[in-house]
Design a protein that fits this description.
single chain, mainly alpha, 0% strand, globular, 4 helices
Length: 79
C-alpha cells in the first residue's frame, strides 16, 4: 500500500527535524517538568534541555503530555 502525500510530507518533516543527539520518549518525559518550569517562568532553556524542546517538536504523544502538564502547572500558578 503506497503512502499518501500527507504521510510522505510528515515523514519528510520528521527527517528534517532530526538532530545528531536525540532522546526517546521515556527520557523526554523524565525531564519535561523541568523544561516546563523554565518555559512558565519565561527563562532561557538551558542547553541540557534543548533536546526536550527538539523531541517535543517531532513527537505528538509527548507534546500532548507536555501540553497537559503546562495546563496543570498554569492552573496551580493562578491559585
Amino acid at each position: 500500500m503506497p503512502l499518501s502525500k500527507k504521510e510522505i510530507d510528515g515523514l519528510l518533516r520528521a527527517i528534517s527535524l532530526t538532530n545528531e543527539t536525540e532522546i526517546n520518549c521515556e527520557q523526554c518525559l523524565a525531564v519535561v517538568a523541568e523544561f516546563a518550569e523554565y518555559e512558565l517562568a519565561s527563562k532561557s532553556i538551558p542547553d541540557s534541555l534543548k533536546v526536550v524542546e527538539q523531541h517535543l517538536s517531532i513527537c505528538t504523544e509527548c507534546c500532548e503530555e507536555y501540553k497537559a502538564l503546562q495546563l496543570a502547572l498554569s492552573e496551580l500558578d493562578s491559585e
